[in-house]
Amino acid sequence: MQMACLEPDLELEEPPPAALSTDYLVVGGGIAGVSCAELLLTLNPEASVTLVTDCHLVKAVTDLSHVTKLLANFRVVERSATEWGQEGGVRVVQGAVTALDPHSRTVTVEGVGKVGYGRLCLATGGRPRLVCRHPLVLGLRDVQSVLHLQAKLSAARRVLVLGNGGIATEL
Question: Is the pLDDT of residue 8 over 50?
């Protein structure tokens, strides 16, 4: 996630006229998008921040505690996007982004129309790279994929864990 737009003395460009406009537009309701929106409000409380997500839930960080300067403990929880936005002062727009026009600084959101922005953060996540596409090969990256794994494990006789990342070593 590029954070260069967070310089405190940065003058925001006026968002273009659109059905809806905002100083900062964050696309993505995952941990990166939610954390970005929260940080933008912390650094610039007078700015308008809008988060676009195509899901009714967002992933938020709670119980944050710093263990060392570079290491933190936290929990990730799924919350209602609307409730999270109301509590945190972020406007939440639900819908899929269908177009992005950087020249006019607008995104088109399904069911909403054009949303103008001064600055844009795209935090739409990624997909795991799997060894192959097969119904028995699972990639883990979120709560839903873990629940899917749990269901598969209940009837499994053998399991192969491929990978040495944090999730694989915990399994």
Answer: no
